[in-house]
């Protein structure tokens, strides 16, 4: 991930550890918040969308990823249908 954003191919271990800590903290925080706003004890996609709704970049990215996911599901379903009809 760091290399993709312009860091060295072999970054410092300390940098990797710091980024890992930040990502884990962010994911944990978002998960806890999502568990509080939605159905208690469950995290749903809509809860995460709700949490990032005011951050335009994150909101756009999550919408893109959800759209892509739906397109992949449809493509897999069509491919499976073709596979079974062709055999």
Automatic annotation (TrEMBL):
GO biological process terms held by the UniProt record: transcription by RNA polymerase II
Origin: domain of life: Eukaryota
InterPro entries: Histone-fold, TFIID_TAF13
Keywords attached to this entry: Nucleus, Transcription, Transcription regulation
Compartments, record wording: Nucleus
A molecular function GO annotation: protein heterodimerization activity
A Gene Ontology cellular-component term: transcription factor TFIID complex
One Pfam family named in its UniProt record: TFIID-18kDa
Protein family (similarity comment): Belongs to the TAF13 family.
Protein name: Transcription initiation factor TFIID subunit 13
